Amino acid sequence: MRLSFTVNGRQCEADDVWEGESLLYVLRERLGLPGSKNACEQGECGSCTVYLDGVPACACLVAAGQAAGREVGTVEGLAEGDGLGAVQESFVEAGAVQCGFCTPGLLVATDDLVNRVPHPSDAEIRESLAGNLCRCTGYEKIMDAVRLAADRRASSEASRSGKTDA
Amino acid sequence: MSDHAPARSPQDLDDSIAGGIGESPTRPDGALKVRGEYAYASDLWAEDMLWGATLRSPHPYARIRSIDIGPALATPGVYAVLTHSDVPGENLYGLKIVDQPVLAVDVVRYRGEAVALVAADHPETARRAMERIEVDYEVLEPITDPELAAHDTTLPELHPGGNVVRHQPIVKGDPEASADVVVSGLYTLGMQDQAFLGPEAGLAVPAPDGGVDLYLATQDLHSDRKQTAQALGLPPEKVRMTMSGVGGAFGGREDLSIQVHCSMLALHTGKPVKMVYDREESFHGHVHRHPAKMYYEHGATRDGDLVYVRATLYFDGGAYASKTPVVVGNGTTLGIGPYAVPNVRIEGWGLYTNNPPCGAMRGLGAVQPALAYEAQMDKLADALGMDPVEVRIRNALSQGGTTPTGQVLDYPAPVAELLDRVRRLPLPAEHDSAPADIRDLPGGASNTTHGEGVVRGIGYGVCIKNICYAEGADDYSTARVRLQIIGGEPLAVVHTAAAEVGQGLVTVQQQIARTELGVERVNIHPNDTDVGPAGSSSASRQTYVTGGAVRNACEAVRDVLLQRVAARSGESIGDLSLSGGKVVSSATGVLADLADVIGDDVIEETREYHHRETYPLDEELGTSERAQVQHAFSAHRAVVDVDTELGLVKVVQLDCSQDVGKAMNPEAVIGQIQGGSAQGLGLAVMEEIRVDGGTIRNASFTDYLIPTILDMPPMNIDVIERADPNSPYGVRGVGEPPTISSTPAVVAAIRAATGKALTHTPVAPEHIIADIPR
């Protein structure tokens, strides 16, 4: 089948998609966007987390056809121009990246969290990221990264709204 | 790297972040990783590539009567179906013992053994073709009990020479010594999986010279190349390997997985072939941590001084040897823990069975006995009415002390200090009558308790681990360092085959080059087989040996520069050094810019680093003047809350003191301790591959659980630096110890809360609510 949907704000089309393929497969193998990772293919590890119409979802559990006409956001869309986005920057600075295979999914999940909750408590962070497995870090530096990202997001919002008010 | 490199093959890491030895610069691959642009092995892509797949045995033990590939080969979209008769070279490989077929011939020895290969135009086509391969099996009764495999001579021999892979006794002092206070126990450990997130993957590209270029994720390129070339019947120089991004390893990538299979399919079809395991296949396609059965007896004086330790350890190696010989070596030599004991008798057995093959995993062979000897130390403290930490400190090994093999520790061994420090770290607050957040209780958001039936416990664990390979191995490393002027600035490029598996070796290599050469810009060349061997990224050894090789190569480059300047300026070379991109004299100050000294030259030097020599163990007594290069130590304290009615455990806090010799990158050291501790916590309370009659019952992340961010508590981490005079910069291996001492600490804390014996790890709810007192 032919599939068309929006990825990171860009209209994309894929031809000859077999009906059994997942959104993850189409992103990785047909659209040249391998940032989202395949680590379990059953929605347990969160490495393939993407936005689907603004809501985080495991791309491995979404049949390709279900994405037709919808908006998909991946890790490749988190950068701000040539620079890193605040969440990406926080993960690097906090040392929350080791092998990095879980990182793309964690970044999307964190981006969603700090967009929804300006000042998440530790318990909220843990609950929000409980669907993203990491085998390298023991999660402590991921906690640091999310706190840092939340602070930065909140202060940039504050300065933005400050400018608007002025 | 070849000129026909596939898309997303690795490039130089040129993100040079300021910081030398002892600082904590961020990773040079960090930006690529958070952009989703870091090229992992599973991301590789080549024009016109095929997908490879592996048909695996559904039986733990069976004779193969026949294989019919006809229907599979006739499937549209299928380019090749290969069996053992297509293996071009030697159809056997192995890390220590060459005993494992590339593809099974007339017998399969485990559930999951590779039998046939398919290459097709789509992964689904390959899967469907595999279903059409008809294998006629005669199912045999599997051997699944390693203790029986050791002693029951009526069992069939799974390999020529019998079912014992290695038997090693260690005897010190009087093996029959007696003591006033005696405690004994039988301890068992389940099979743990490395559970790296990036599954096995690679892309093989057939080369015009009849060889193959393989892009892959591994821990040791040269070990892979040697085994792969042998199996392909090619000279090693025609098997070129390049490291792609590795999604974690933890020992699970030491043995071959896709290497020969992928190359065979590429050479046979003349097309690039990609293989990627899914999670279930990954569970069947790599080795696991050896399950163990361990009989222990400790004798002590009434004052608490250890008089003797006697132990017998059985390690289940499964169907093929892999690293079983080393597991037996480590398990026995380190089998009494970091304690000074005058009389020791340990017997270690590594066995062949029809269970899944077991091999390397972080803490290799030292994890298993730590659970037993630390349980024994607690039991001893209990019998003596002493504090468990005091008993440990009283018997702690120290510098100048002797191991059971007779090796004198000629470097710091601050075991007592680590125990004392870890117990002084701050404790978490006690629960009030109404805890603030139900998510902090056992069972969490499942709402299984509001505090009723919840008991807190505290436990300790301390461990010893050898660093680098042992028993006579010369596991050296090689580094090539090139210095030239690019855009008016000095640029160093470091090239090694040392696998970056997530641990941050790329960062440490940059730090060493910056410090040794006094330059800012340092690029890391991709790991490949164009440079000499680095050995495996295992045994906590890469900062030690590859760090040493990078240092040596930098020193050689520096010598060339300084000789040039000394000749020109007439100053003594001993007065010269490199700093801030300049040659500086301690007598007369800045002599020259590197840009002027180097000009258009390229200064390139390649050097090896060999650690000091080790020697084999005596086969009867286990004695050796120096069996191991270095030992590392860590101590953990665990605080747990246990719902004693439901058997649910919440680890509230996990603290660690560790000696790292020299913290080359302090933040990366902390990251290793946190990550290692999490894997140890997982082993303590949740991680076990369930094997039933030789078959894995939980080959998925739905059924094999690893800790989530909800399971991992905050940690206090206390790093001390007692330099080892024998190692580069005084470093001591960091990665493994925290995986070892965390598990017994958590189990001890659960014992303290429940009063239950808990002789099996991981501890399951049914063990806690079972009516078995300590």
UniProtKB/TrEMBL annotation, chain A:
InterPro entries (alphabetical): 2Fe-2S-bd, 2Fe-2S-bd_dom_sf, 2Fe-2S_ferredoxin-like_sf, 2Fe-2S_ferredoxin-type, 2Fe2S_fd_BS, Beta-grasp_dom_sf, Diverse_Oxidoreductases
Annotated PROSITE patterns: 2FE2S_FER_1, 2FE2S_FER_2
Keyword Translocase among UniProt keywords: no
Pfam families in alphabetical order: Fer2 (PF00111), Fer2_2 (PF01799)
Alphabetical keyword list: 2Fe-2S, Iron, Iron-sulfur, Metal-binding, Oxidoreductase
Molecular function as annotated in GO: 2 iron, 2 sulfur cluster binding; metal ion binding; oxidoreductase activity
Presence of keyword Protein transport: no
Recorded superkingdom: Bacteria
Coiled coil: none
PANTHER family named among the record's database cross-references: OXIDOREDUCTASE WITH IRON-SULFUR SUBUNIT (PTHR44379), XANTHINE DEHYDROGENASE IRON-SULFUR-BINDING SUBUNIT XDHC-RELATED (PTHR44379:SF8)
Protein name: Carbon-monoxide dehydrogenase small subunit
Organism field: Halopolyspora algeriensis
Automatic annotation (TrEMBL), chain B:
Ranges where the Aldehyde oxidase/xanthine dehydrogenase a/b hammerhead domain occurs: 35-141
GO molecular function, one term: oxidoreductase activity
Signal sequence, renumbered to the chain: none
Region (Disordered): 1-29
Membrane-spanning intervals of the chain: none
Protein known as: Xanthine dehydrogenase molybdenum binding subunit apoprotein
Species of the source: Halopolyspora algeriensis
